[in-house]
């Protein structure tokens, strides 16, 4: 096989990424498919458009769930979804182009080249259908190019089991035929194994917790695919530097030691995303961690924060001390200095840019990416840490997990930040009440491995936070009721200064005492009524930020303090319907066009045929 020019491929990928619906149409006015697909160059060029299916960076930094909150809640979280007239994720254009390559790839006489690109096409077909199954459940399976009048277009939905079988057939072909070279930009043998690991974990646990049956075979295949990746020694947990977890996501170029696949961005080619603006811009998403997940991070010695004396009323500086280092490498920490900030300016959390106060720093690659559409660090899609987590969870759910399995998976992840490993016997003999609670944990976990499953879920939530996994983890675990909870942010003591309506409180966010060592500064003042002047507070004290209570945020007990209320249930009640909300509805127009399509349970679109 000829050596591939990856710089040309990358440029072509960027061109495809910049396109829109044109990706769904083959340019028949330029050349006919019957005369194309003759060689590696043509197969490669055509298959570049499939990379449009790789998630963009907003899938990570834009995560919106019960643990990563944004200023605006999604319809899924609010329970306000309706049956759409059209769209709604029911799109099939990319599939037609995948099947087009598979139809005409026979024209390439080089068998190795042909099978390589057939493997690429079938990898993307598997991924395409996985996303459809996650969203809709049963969907029609199309594995050939169909014309607009072909009666097969009007087929009913195939069963979930049938479609999943086809997905795994495609992945097995891809695993066998795509070369085992490493690349963070292109689909490889290793990417196909990673996708199989992810798909089989999802399907196995979805079937288990939704009581669909036949779940063990998927989890067994998850273990198998994960083991092959783990034992290959192609990837390892990145551990360089003082802040390796933070730096993994701040790196402009994906770190190939750990990253299996990334979406490329480029300052030189002006291909940007919006991470910094979303996380730091005053009109961005106001993203912030919820207090629920912050409280779930363990202490540095592995003990539970939620068993520390006074944990419920700890304020920011105190609660950040001696915790799992991933906490202060994910959110803005006391003494925070941004990556690549040459001024070394110490920053406090910006409540204008974070709804909860726990401002996210994950994906922030430094001030050079500030502003709308100015970030250009790569977005990680698959990495070995996820595979370790998949492996441990699948084995725990199957009941085959032993301590050694945790030693070769979870321990490696925790070693990065100096955290002790999960002790399986200890976890199962003493499950964490915080993780057992339906308010702060998971209501559906039972059995002898309950404790260790809960610990693996803790680990997954922390390690993969803000990477786009959480919503569908909730779906597969059948824990949608978490979206009905009140969402909280930081805790503040009462506004204990001033009188009457004009009360205020002074709060340090950096060094544990009011002011810095050599200057009399206070990080923030929260006040009600009239804003106090610096002189009113102290002739020598300077307040860095003033926040008026009930304007930017509310505290659950008002002037008496409490947690920030991020989305008040009194103003914005939420409802999760266990009978219908785990799947999306089929759009009305699609059912009008194809009367064989049945609607998903619980969704009323007014059609009766």
Secondary structure elements and their pairing?
Blueprint: H1 6-18, H2 40-47, H3 58-61, E1 68-69, H4 75-78, H5 93-104, H6 111-136, H7 160-177, H8 189-209, H9 216-232, H10 244-250, E2 259-263, H11 275-280, E3 288-289, H12 291-296, H13 316-319, H14 325-328, E4 379-383, H15 384-398, H16 403-407, H17 410-415, H18 424-429, H19 433-436, H20 450-463, H21 470-476, E5 488-492, E6 497-499, E7 502-507, E8 521-527, H22 534-537, E9 542-548, E10 554-555, E11 562-565, H23 588-593
Parallel strand pairs: 8-9
Antiparallel strand pairs: 1-3, 2-4, 5-11, 6-7, 7-8, 10-11
Structural write-up:
The protein is of the alpha+beta class and 609 residues long. β10 and β11 (562-565) form a beta hairpin. The protein is 36% helix and 8% strand. It has a four-stranded mixed beta sheet, with no helix packed on it.
**Low-confidence runs:** 1-25, 513-518
Strand content: 5-15%
Largest sheet: 4 strands, mixed
Order of neighbouring strands in the sheet with most strands? 6-7-8-9
Classify the secondary structure makeup into a structural class.
alpha+beta
Beta strands, count = 11
Distance between the termini: 54 Å
Share of residues in helices: 25-40%
Helices, by number, come to 23
Averaged pLDDT, please? 93
What Rg is obtained from the alpha carbons, in whole angstroms?
A: 26 Å
Overall geometry = globular
């Amino acid at each position: 096989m000829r050596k591939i020019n990856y710089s040309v491929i990358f440029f072509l990928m960027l061109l495809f990424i910049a396109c829109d619906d044109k990706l769904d149409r083959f340019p028949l006015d330029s050349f006919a498919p019957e005369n194309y697909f003759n060689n590696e160059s043509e197969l490669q060029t055509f298959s570049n458009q499939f990379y449009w299916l790789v998630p963009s960076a907003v899938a990570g930094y834009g995560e919106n769930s019960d643990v990563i909150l944004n200023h605006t809640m999604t319809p899924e979280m609010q329970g306000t979804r309706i049956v759409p007239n059209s769209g709604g994720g029911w799109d099939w254009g990319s599939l037609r182009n995948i099947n087009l390559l598979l139809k005409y790839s026979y024209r390439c006489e080089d068998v190795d080249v042909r099978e390589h690109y057939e493997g690429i096409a079938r990898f993307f077909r598997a991924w395409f259908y996985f996303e459809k199954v996650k969203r809709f459940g049963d969907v029609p399976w199309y594995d050939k190019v169909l014309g607009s009048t072909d009666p097969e277009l009007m087929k009913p939905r195939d069963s979930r089991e049938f479609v999943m079988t086809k997905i795994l057939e495609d992945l097995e072909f891809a695993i066998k035929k795509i070369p085992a070279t490493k690349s963070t930009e292109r689909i490889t043998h290793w990417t196909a194994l990673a996708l199989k690991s992810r798909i089989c974990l999802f399907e196995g646990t979805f079937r288990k917790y939704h009581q669909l049956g036949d779940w063990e075979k998927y989890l067994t295949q998850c273990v198998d695919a994960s083991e092959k990746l783990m034992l290959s020694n192609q990837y390892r947990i990145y551990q360089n530097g003082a802040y390796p977890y933070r730096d993994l996501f701040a790196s402009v170029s994906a770190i190939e030691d750990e990253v299996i696949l990334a979406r490329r961005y480029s300052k030189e080619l002006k291909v940007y995303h919006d991470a910094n603006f979303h996380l730091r811009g005053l009109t961005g998403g106001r993203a912030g961690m919820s207090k629920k997940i912050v409280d779930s991070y363990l202490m540095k010695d592995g003990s539970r924060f939620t068993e520390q004396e006074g944990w419920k009323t700890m304020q920011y500086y105190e609660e950040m001390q001696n915790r799992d280092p991933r906490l202060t490498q994910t959110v803005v920490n006391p003494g925070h200095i941004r990556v690549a900030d040459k001024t070394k300016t110490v920053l406090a959390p910006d409540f204008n840019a974070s709804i909860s106060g726990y401002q996210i720093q994950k994906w922030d690659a430094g001030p050079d990416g500030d502003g709308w559409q100015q970030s250009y660090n790569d977005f990680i899609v698959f990495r070995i840490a996820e595979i370790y987590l998949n492996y441990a969870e699948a084995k725990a759910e199957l009941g085959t997990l032993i301590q050694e399995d945790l030693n070769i998976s979870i321990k490696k992840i925790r070693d990065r930040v100096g955290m002790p490993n999960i002790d399986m016997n200890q976890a199962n003999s003493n499950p964490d009440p915080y993780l057992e609670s339906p308010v702060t944990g998971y209501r559906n976990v039972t059995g002898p491995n309950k404790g260790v499953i809960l610990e693996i879920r803790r680990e997954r939530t922390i390690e993969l936070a803000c990477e786009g996994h959480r919503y569908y983890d909730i779906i597969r675990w059948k824990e949608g009721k978490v979206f009905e909870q009140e969402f909280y942010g930081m805790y503040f003591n009462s506004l204990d200064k001033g009188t009457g309506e004009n009360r205020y409180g002074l709060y340090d966010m950096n060094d544990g005492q009011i002011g810095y060592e050599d200057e009399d500064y206070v990080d923030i003042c929260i006040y009600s009524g009239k804003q106090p002047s610096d002189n009113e507070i102290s002739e020598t004290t300077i307040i860095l930020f003033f926040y008026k209570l009930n304007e930017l945020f509310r505290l659950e007990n008002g002037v008496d303090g409490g947690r920030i209320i991020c989305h008040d249930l009194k103003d914005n009640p939420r409802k999760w319907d266990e009978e219908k909300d785990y799947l999306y509805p089929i759009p009305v127009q699609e059912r009008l066009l194809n009367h064989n399509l049945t609607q998903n349970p619980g969704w009323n679109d007014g059609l009766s045929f």
